[in-house]
Amino acid sequence: MTYENLGGGALDYYSCRYGKSKLLFRGPRRKLDQPYVAVVGGTETYGKFMERPYPALLEARLGAPFVNLGCVNAGLDVMFNDPAIPEICSGAWLTVLQITGAQNMSNRFYSVHPRRNDRFLRASNLLKTIYREVDFSDINFTRHLLKTLWEASPDKFTMVEAELKEAWLGRMKGLINRLDGKVVLLWLADHAPGDARAFAPDAPDPLFVDAEMLNEVRPMVAGLAEVVVSRAEIEAGRAGLIHDEIDAPAAQASLGVVAQARAAEALEQVLEPLL
Questions:
Q1: Could you tell me which residues are beta bridge partners of residue 227?
Q2: pLDDT in tens, 132-185
Q3: What is the DSSP code (8-state) at residue 38?
Q4: Total of domains in the chain
């Protein structure tokens, strides 16, 4: 078990591993020799700073075991490359796949850490050639990288954005095929897919993913639950997060517990006819 001191007592994530994976998933660990639903995603799926993320809420609502395979700051790379995730999903009744942004994945321009996908590792020679004026040595995170590139040249940045969108589509299609079963997508954000905005340093996740991209993968899945959380719901939901003062900035990036409840409600409507 892993305990993190998040203020007001320790929040127990019951961290566990499955199979040959090097990732620590949120528990409690579920048995895989009986029917279950797999849930794959990023920070909101993991449920950082909250007692009951939406997979746990759904488990109580539907009376079926849910295996939480969410990873903090995960992009499609960790979901696609981890050896345990496709294996677990192939044995599930169905898989819920949270839609994550296109920034936290390796592509022709840069590489990310294989497990902590928000970590920038290196720029490709192609990117260094395009952005000769940029010093990449002090950049550690993908958001910082994109902010630096965007500020250096908004015109050149259009090439980066196009590459990330293309890479996301290819990786997303490949992941859905690897999951080998019924897949339901979850859009959980403060904006609808059709309201995706032009890039800015504080642009919300799922970064770069728009309605056109979702329409391209939609025929490959069994359903889509779209949850758009209002600013008032986010603010109200953050009051239910468990963290200490040092983690307050990270907690502010969360959509909060109200968003989790709304995700569970929306997914229940989509999942119930499929189970």
A1: 188
A2: 999 999 999 999 999 999 999 999 999 999 999 999 999 999 999 999 899 999
A3: E
A4: 1
